[in-house]
């Protein structure tokens, strides 16, 4: 506001110090040029005027709305902020904390296969998203208390969800044919529309810069979306092929990389043109991989499920696929989900793998951490306000968080960004 007021006073002063030339709208001394320029600055119009383009100062990442952090023009500031936090490092070794002693069974009525995925919301809460639970659960990170926020049909009707504009979470239909949205501001659940679909339809989704929520294909080959601007459901003309995708990863170029599970290739949706391409590299299918995450250096780390090898896709090098290394004592159904922490490390969320582990987003070093307290334990997690990771309990039957001991933290706009606050 102060910047615009200063500029306004300067322009008024300039206009009174020149002899106006109203006959030429592109004469910098004309009243018309100055008034048009002032208006365009006030409305942040970035189009060209008389061969000149206004490039207003970049807004710092933490002053953006979370709905603006994934716009391509804001990536420079977001990247700088995230890397600033990375540089602060860690204060010590990670710890696993049971932050609320109530069991999941006591809280929601079932202690087995209760949740899959978690999201942070603008109200500060963390939301555990249902798998077999009939409840969406809100966690208050300050008090560590929980609240039963809404009732859902249950029975794997949904897998994951996506935070869209204004604090609304869009649940991804899995065995349910109805698209739902959950308003975190008042804890109301509402249906959007119903479509006849095949079983196990979608796994999570991605909030794209064009205002659309794209659902990640599982049993369905059609990429469907919900347009948050028009309030309508639509679909992309080109389908995916080859099997199930488990996760979607957004890049600053507005592209979504669908991570293959039983499919063998990554499919890429360009949300500008809504065209679909593939990366030729074969990930083998056979439920080898389960998740992926974007890092500020342009990499998408691919998280194993049944495979032993960790890869990343270098989006800055023609989508070259790089072998990072192998998971120590690899087994089956190892991980489900991954979270980027403010210390610059990735934390795959253990399902049946015996340990937690970290992957350094710069060096790709894989490090074993503490033991996983149970089998089939967690599916997904989300970063908290001080760098802790709230784990989404599947069979764990307990409320746990992973304290990453990050010295830095992500401000709300970055923490809620569609790049990282996702299933």
Automatic annotation (TrEMBL):
Name the record gives this protein: Lipoprotein
Species lineage: Bacteria, Pseudomonadati, Spirochaetota, Spirochaetia, Leptospirales
């Amino acid at each position: 506001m102060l910047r615009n007021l200063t500029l306004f006073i300067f322009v008024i002063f300039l206009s009174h110090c020149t002899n106006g030339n109203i006959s030429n709208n592109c004469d910098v001394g004309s009243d018309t040029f100055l008034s048009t320029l002032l208006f365009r600055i006030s409305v942040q119009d970035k189009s060209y005027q008389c061969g000149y383009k206004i490039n207003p100062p970049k807004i710092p990442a933490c002053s953006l709305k979370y709905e603006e952090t994934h716009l391509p023009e804001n990536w420079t500031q977001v990247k700088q902020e995230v890397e600033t936090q990375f540089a602060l490092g860690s204060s010590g070794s990670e710890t696993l904390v049971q932050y609320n002693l109530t069991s999941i069974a006591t809280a929601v009525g079932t202690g087995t296969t209760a949740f899959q995925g978690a999201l942070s919301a603008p109200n500060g809460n963390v939301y555990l998203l249902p798998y077999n639970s009939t409840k969406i659960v809100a966690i208050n990170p300050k008090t560590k208390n929980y609240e039963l926020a809404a009732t859902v049909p249950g029975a794997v009707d949904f897998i994951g969800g996506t935070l869209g504009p204004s604090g609304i979470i869009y649940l991804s239909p899995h065995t349910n044919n109805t698209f739902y949205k959950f308003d975190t501001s008042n804890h109301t659940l509402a249906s959007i529309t119903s479509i006849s679909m095949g079983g196990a339809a979608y796994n999570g989704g991605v909030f794209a810069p064009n205002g659309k929520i794209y659902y990640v294909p599982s049993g369905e080959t059609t990429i469907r979306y919900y347009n948050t601007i028009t309030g309508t459901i639509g679909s992309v003309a080109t389908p995916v092929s080859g099997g199930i995708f488990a996760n979607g990863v957004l890049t600053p170029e507005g592209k979504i990389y669908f991570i293959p599970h039983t499919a063998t290739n990554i499919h890429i949706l360009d949300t500008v043109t809504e065209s679909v391409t593939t990366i030729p590299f074969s990930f083998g299918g056979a439920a080898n991989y389960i998740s992926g995450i974007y890092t500020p250096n342009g990499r998408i780390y691919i998280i194993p499920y049944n495979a032993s090898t960790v890869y990343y896709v270098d989006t800055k090098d023609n989508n070259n696929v790089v072998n990072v290394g192998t998971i120590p004592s690899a087994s089956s159904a190892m991980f489900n989900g991954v979270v980027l922490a403010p210390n610059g490390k990735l934390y795959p969320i253990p399902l049946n793998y015996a340990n937690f582990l970290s992957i350094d987003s710069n060096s790709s070093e894989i490090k074993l951490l503490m033991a996983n307290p149970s089998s089939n334990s967690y599916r997904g997690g989300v970063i908290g306000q001080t760098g802790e990771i709230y784990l989404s309990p599947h069979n764990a039957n307990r409320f746990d968080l992973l304290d990453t001991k990050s010295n830095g933290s992500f401000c709300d706009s970055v923490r809620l960004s569609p790049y990282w606050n996702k299933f």
